[in-house]
């Protein structure tokens, strides 16, 4: 699909249904290789100005979608293009609805106990399989241990909700160890699933 550039950052012009198709192919049809997904919002643009590693993580992501209207507006102003929204919450919910029991999900992020609750609710509502859960409050020296825990879980989908920048740089740096065919930075989505 076409790719625009917004302040040095890539933005894919892709609808929510097309995003779900693409991620479904990565998880279930293509050879199993890790892919990262960024859902871009204006906060990322501001924050990445002063964090080159955040810029790099977004530039190297396999798919960058417009999380909300702020990005849609920016693309319209800068490129005169209408970019559809594919917000993180809608992507995650859409994948769970489509794939249900075929989908193994790792919930990584939020405060202790929240990922467990999110996983329970997702099992109840969509019948997904839970590959594992881990809170999002660990320091850099623990990154490898957590990434290896995820990597050994056989997840199709890794949801990383650890705050803007932290989640994207973690996902990109550890993608080979995480190993899952779809790894998505999803901000507060784990909190939303926890209800
Ligand atoms: N979070 C986390 N570890 C951190 C900071 C935040 O797991 O070190 C979680 C937080 O609990 C929430 C999610 O990341 O579930 C998004 O946090 P917040 O809205 O503060 O971050 P933003 O996306 O606005 O940067």
Automatic annotation (TrEMBL):
<protein>
    <submittedName>
        <fullName>WecB/TagA/CpsF family glycosyl transferase</fullName>
    </submittedName>
</protein>
<keyword id="KW-0328">Glycosyltransferase</keyword>
<dbReference type="GO" id="GO:0016758">
    <property type="term" value="F:hexosyltransferase activity"/>
</dbReference>
<keyword id="KW-0808">Transferase</keyword>
């Amino acid at each position: 699909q076409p790719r625009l550039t917004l302040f040095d950052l890539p933005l894919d012009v892709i609808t929510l249904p097309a995003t779900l198709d693409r991620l479904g192919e990565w998880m279930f049809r293509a050879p199993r290789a890790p892919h990262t997904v960024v859902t871009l919002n204006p906060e990322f643009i501001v924050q990445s100005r002063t964090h080159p590693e955040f810029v790099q993580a977004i530039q190297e992501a396999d798919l960058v979608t417009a999380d909300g209207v702020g990005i849609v507006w920016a693309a319209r102003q800068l490129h005169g293009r209408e970019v559809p929204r594919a917000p993180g919450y809608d992507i995650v919910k859409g994948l769970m609805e489509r794939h249900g029991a075929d989908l193994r999900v790792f919930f990584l992020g939020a405060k202790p106990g929240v990922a467990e609750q999110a996983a329970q609710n997702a099992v109840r509502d969509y019948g997904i399989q839970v590959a594992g859960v881990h809170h999002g409050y660990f320091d850099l020296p623990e990154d490898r241990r957590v990434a290896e825990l995820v990597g050994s879980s056989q997840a199709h989908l890794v949801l990383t909700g650890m705050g803007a920048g932290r989640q994207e740089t973690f996902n990109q740096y550890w993608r080979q160890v995480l190993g899952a065919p779809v790894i998505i930075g999803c901000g507060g989505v784990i909190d939303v699933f926890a209800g």
